[in-house]
Design goal:
Residues 39-288 form the G-protein coupled receptors family 1 profile domain. It is found in: Cell membrane. Keywords: Cell membrane, G-protein coupled receptor, Membrane, Olfaction, Receptor, Sensory transduction, Transducer, Transmembrane, Transmembrane helix. Odorant receptor. Putative odorant or sperm cell receptor. With 321 residues, this protein is mainly α. The protein has one domain (9-320): Up-down Bundle (Rhopdopsin 7-helix transmembrane proteins), CATH 1.20.1070.10. Helix content is 77%, strand content 2%. The chain contains twelve helices and three strands; from the N terminus they run αβααβαααβαααααα. The chain has helices at residues 2-6, 19-49, 56-85, 92-125, 130-133, 136-161, 179-183, 192-223, 229-258, 267-289, 293-303, 305-320, and strands at residues 10-12, 89-90, 171-172. The protein has a three-stranded mixed β-sheet. α9 packs antiparallel against α10. Residues 1-5 have low confidence and may be disordered.
């Protein structure tokens, strides 16, 4: 145990010490990761190539898919590698990068979901002013603010969290470098600054949640006044999946980060981490995008033989950029 205390990195205990179970979980994570990559790359490609999908709604969807793609790539490949190699060690530098990108992308994800709820509020409740309010200039600046806010949040958490002296054995009952698990190793009375940063981030997330709820209260009150049942169904089909994604992400992530860290491994801890770290980025394309008829039409159009041949070079240029 002395070596665990003196080492510079951390030992991720993950899910199990059983070798067969480790390999099985690595394969399940690999399949899930490939599904997430495929679904999110399809959305990014379709919304970039199809000229019919250039409205603000699809512009924000493209950035949400990019965030999901990066978010799941921060932890899952490392976890697969650790399981296959039967080695849970992660260096301090790798842990710092994981924490930074995890917090930055999670914060950006909450922010982009809030922007998307406002976009849908304007589209449904103020349709005559939609093009004026959600113009190209406003959309670009909103997305820029989303990425900058996420980066700032990640930088604050990383700087404060890794400036805290650690006194415990560097064991983490997780499959990635998790802030609550790192904080439980902190020396007594040494993490007051992290509490302040966490309180600030929690307050910002709460403001985003309230803004989203207010937007949807206005949306649903407007929708219920629509005389056409078909029109109401169309709006609910578009908005309810987005509301589900926001609620699901904030509830699972909030449960994991707001409660005190445990000194022993809990199946509930791992389950909630898997929900918001792995399952949600994988299901987002199906929940929020690929069920959309315009997205399906764009997907068929882009993947058709003639269209694909015509746009192949353009697609390569996008991903090179």
């Amino acid at each position: 145990m002395a070596s665990l205390t003196s080492m510079s990195g951390f030992l991720l205990l993950g899910f199990s010490d059983n070798r067969e179970l480790q390999i099985l979980l690595a394969l399940l994570f690999l399949v899930t990761y490939l599904l997430a990559l495929t679904g999110n790359l399809l959305i990014i490609s379709v919304t970039s190539l199809d000229h019919c999908l250039q409205s603000p709604m699809y512009y924000f969807l493209k950035h949400l898919s990019l965030l999901d793609l990066c978010f799941i790539s921060v932890t899952v490949p490392q976890s697969i590698t650790n399981s296959l190699m039967n080695n849970g060690y992660i260096s301090r530098g790798q842990c710092i990068l994981q924490v930074f990108f995890f917090i930055a992308l999670a914060s950006s994800g909450v922010a982009i979901l809030t922007v998307m709820s406002y976009d849908r509020y304007v589209a449904i409740c103020r349709p005559l002013q939609y093009e004026t309010i959600m113009n190209n200039y406003a959309c670009r600046h909103a997305v820029t603010a989303v990425w900058l806010a996420g980066g700032l949040s990640g930088l604050m958490h990383t700087a404060v969290n890794f400036s805290i002296p650690l006194c415990g054995e560097r064991l983490s009952h997780q499959f990635f470098c998790d802030i609550p698990q790192v904080l439980k190793l902190a020396c007594p009375h040494e993490f007051i600054n992290e509490i302040a940063v966490a309180a600030f981030t929690t307050s910002a997330a709460f403001i985003c949640l309230v803004s989203t709820v207010v937007s949807y209260v206005h949306i649903f009150s407007t929708v219920l006044r629509i005389p056409s049942a078909k029109g109401r169904t169309k709006v609910f089909t578009t908005c309810l999946p987005h509301l589900f994604v926001v609620t699901f992400f904030l509830s699972t992530a909030g449960f994991e980060f707001l409660r005190p860290p445990s000194n022993s491994q809990s199946a509930m801890d791992l389950m909630f981490s898997i929900f918001y770290m792995v399952i949600l980025p994988t299901l987002n394309p199906a929940i929020d995008s690929l069920r959309n008829e315009a997205m399906k039409a764009g997907l068929r159009k882009v993947l058709s033989k003639g269209e694909f041949a015509q746009r192949k070079m353009y697609l390569k240029a996008i991903f090179k950029f």
